[in-house]
Amino acid sequence: MLVLTRRPGESVMVGDDVVITVLDVRGDVVRIGIKAPRSVQVHREEVYKELQRVNRESASPDDTAVRALSKLLRSEQE
Amino acid sequence: MSVATLEPSQTTELPVIDFVAPMPGFPDDKQFVLVQVQDSEVIFELTSKDHPDLRFVVVPPVALFPNYSPEIDDETLKSLGVSDPNNVVMLLVVTAGDSIANTTVNTAAPIVIDQSTKRGVQLVLNRSDLSVRERLSPAK
User: Fold this and answer.
1) How far apart are the first and last CA of chain B?
2) Lower CB density within 10 Å: C or N end of chain A?
3) What is the CATH topology of the domain spanning B16-135?
């Protein structure tokens, strides 16, 4: 891992168009600002990984589960 | 903003949705076909054009959470090419378990689609009151 030392107000560039700026440091909390093109998604790591996990669990469920859900939703609508 | 209801008639032509960013966990799948599940009015499937055996079951929120209408940020609207908010629909990804009790819905990261541009994205709402594994309460 590349390790750099930065002060508040200073930035790091990743590639040509991603800028990460250290905004503020208080105790053990660091606030950072990230400027990136729209095609680059920026997420907190734990949020992204959790979403990755749940998406993988959601993928391609078997028909029994889908039928059960369909039945539930139908009965709720009646 | 208000979100239009997804009419079954709008899905008969099998729209292909271009994801402006892939769903986390599936970096290679950017195009999905949206189809209505047979004999269900409220369940849809997003099937990958790249891997036809990859599909997600999705439901319009109104079927399960009538009050669900999270704010969609301007950046997202821009990336989907939204010109009229009425063209925007949201779908929640279902994690289907072996029973309804084990079935959850992702309210924290809905799939947002603009029906005219046919572009979509899984939007991470960053809201602590929503969950990627929201349980269904059968008795509402």
Assistant:
1) 25
2) N
3) BH3618-like (2.30.290)
What residues in chain A have their Cβ under 8 A from chain B's Cβ atoms? 38-39, 41, 43-44, 47-48, 50-62, 64-66, 68-70, 72-74, 76-77
Smallest CA-to-CA distance from B107 within B46, B63, B53, B42 is with: B63
Phi/psi of residue A69, each to 5°? -65, -45
Cβ contact B43–A50 (<8 Å): no
Cβ-nearest to A54 among B26, B37, B95: B95
| Nearest CB to B43; choose among A48, A50, A73 | A73
